[in-house]
Model the fold of this input.
Amino acid sequence: GTTDFTTNSSDPDYDAPGGTLTLDTNTPHTVNTLVVDTTGGGVLDLNGGNMAFTQGSLAVTGTGAYTIQNGQLGSDNQTLLVFTDSTGTLTLNAPVSGGLGGFVKQG
Done:
């Protein structure tokens, strides 16, 4: 199934505040939306996997620098919508979609 996924970089699941949250490679990652609160900074490591979006949106809030890396954001041939209401820097070190997919940023 799919879910709405929210991550806050000060959450204890990170290896340290502002640290790295690494996803399990043995689990498919399909979410409706992903909301990232970048306060405190940090990294979301996709661990070589694909994070697919059924609603196609990533929302970013907060004040810290944040990186999403090591995997693919969005399914092939789909458009990923990125909404930012953040004063921090978002770095995507991961391909966004694939094939004929696209990327739209607001904010």
